[in-house]
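Notes for week 9. Today we move from apo structures to complexes. The key idea is that a small molecule is not decoration. When we ask for a structure prediction with zinc ion present, the ligand SMILES becomes part of the input, just like the chain. The input block below holds both the sequence and the ligand string. Read it once before you look at the output, and try to guess where the molecule might sit.
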Amino acid sequence: MTRRKLFVAALAVLLLAAFALPAVLAEDKDKDAKPYPLDFCLVSGEKLGEHGDPISVVYEGQQFKFCCKSCVKDFSKDPAKWQAKLKEEVDKQNKEKKG
Ligand SMILES: [Zn+2]
């Protein structure tokens, strides 16, 4: 009876680990991502947070924020294009800061 209990306990631990591990990995991936540097939606140009909570997406270690689901849809069609666009916008902002 004790052996059987041990087996059940071990199985429960294994199951827990199997479920918990991917969640931990996903969290770490998000944490390592570079934060979104703009205060507006890259797709629509709308200021974030004006139409509810912005939607956050991580692509290749870079976080993106969008004003709504349809912008996320546009983004997922061609993320590389929006990645380049983000770089453009950041460059533009940096130039403006320098004068
Ligand atoms: Zn939108």
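DSSP finds three helices and two strands in the chain.
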